[in-house]
Amino acid sequence: MIMGYAMSRFDMDSEMYDEGTAMDGTSSSGRNQLQSVALDHEISHVTKFRSAPSEMIQKSTYMKPNKPISTVKMLSAREANYSGKGRFSSQDCCHVLSRYLPVNGPWHVDGMSSRAYVSQFSADGTLLVAGFQSSNIRIYNVEKGYKIQKDIHARSLRWTITDTCLSPDQRYLVYASLTPIVHIVNVGSSSVESHANITEIHYGLDFSADGDEDSFGIFSVKFSTDGRELVAGTNDNSIYIYDLDANKVTLRLPAHSNDVNTVTFADETGHLIYSGSDDNFCKVWDRRCLVAKGKPAGVLMGHLEGITFIDSRGDGRYFISNSKDQTIKLWDIRKMSANATSNPRVFTDSDWDYRMDYPSHVRNMKHPSDQSLATYRGHSVLRTLIRCYFSPAYSTGQKYIYTGAYDSSVYIYDVVSGALVAKLDYHDSTVRDCSWHPIYPVLVSSSWDCTVARWEFPGDDKAPVLLKPHSERSRPPLYIVKLNQAAASFWDNEAVYSWVAQVGRSPATVMLLFYVYLETFHPCQ
């Protein structure tokens, strides 16, 4: 495991504290005082409540303010039935589980000869989906040691797989590319190999009006909670709703003035949709009002550059957005405006492109009409649509935010304090996507270095702490063994050493030879 530390800056909405002064330029003591005042907001109280032990357990263990209770004391209190219920509450469970951050490792899940763009656990955590630029989408059975359950060879791709999504019942998977065609695959079939229209049918769902495959591309696609609809964001500045029962597009919204990079349903009702665009705005759409108005329910301003991803908290109220302005912002849709009042590109370098380094002179600039609740800084968002998420509700009470980054790392922030509590370093290139297991303290990261890696908890009873600086980066024990040019086999430590023992070579010698072989004949593209 390699972890590094960089103090993040946590900017709070100026309306939430009396001083009204910016965080920049304040002393460390002043900064802490500002944070303690600024956190008096509903989401901070809800987050703390979800991950705090029950009141009776707090009293019985003489819990100190802002200090976690040890697991041993929690178990003793449960056995003594201090909660009065004879069991842990969901808050008690989160209080214990949320301190186990998935920072050990990584262990190898898979790798190919092309960039990994997507990695997502299923809602119940039994499956993992990984998508690669070379048209491969693999579904792994988590409970069987990440064994490949389905190997999908996608069709009609343009450049890469931009997004994938499992249906709520986990029977179907949709994948998108820079075309108006979304393909749907039955992943519940018995065969492992799924070659498009050879071994299995990959049905094409046409989002275009005239069947023109060159008309636009799709960046984001999501199932509704009932599995009957798809919502998609496209580079023709629009949001599309596709009815799977009717097999047609039922709604097209000219939603933004630039590419719609990300869309998602706000909650399980499917009434509200969040969208983010390269026009720098986040918008909220209420489908119950669209027929009459055709306009967004509201606009949220604050980002200075395009939005790369949006993740909903699932409550129809809060969401986070990742942006090319190198920040994540937390939003409350109750603060949205009816219309956008200013163009944020006026305040930054309008010639900047996110394939270049972000200009230093605008890094700490703030939108004059910023409506966000909080801003999280420290990670880098360049070259691709990097994703961010809330940590799972079941195990952490959604008290963390985590994101991939251009600097090859995964960052984990505390929602309430804004502190960077973990930085996971292993990959050699951009981490575009990552996913925290919904139940266990396990996180998977997918990178442009062509690998998918797994991180787990350290196994002690310590609370997350701010990380200490490190001067060197050393690669953790992640072994990749390629046995021949035709096929690749990836082994964990035990398998490697078992094979090494059979051939009678030292592990160091064998691994050195294989790494030389890989870099010489099969370099990662």
Automatic annotation (TrEMBL):
Keywords: Phosphoprotein, Repeat, WD repeat. WD repeats lie at residues 218-252, 253-286, 300-341, 424-456. GO terms for biological process: proteasome-mediated ubiquitin-dependent protein catabolic process. GO terms for cellular component: Cul4-RING E3 ubiquitin ligase complex. InterPro entries: DCAF, DCAF11/LEC14B, WD40/YVTN_repeat-like_dom_sf, WD40_PAC1, WD40_repeat_dom_sf, WD40_rpt. It holds the Pfam family WD40. Belongs to the WD repeat LEC14B family. PANTHER family: DDB1- AND CUL4-ASSOCIATED FACTOR 11. This is LEC14B homolog. It comes from Aristolochia fimbriata (White veined hardy Dutchman's pipe vine).
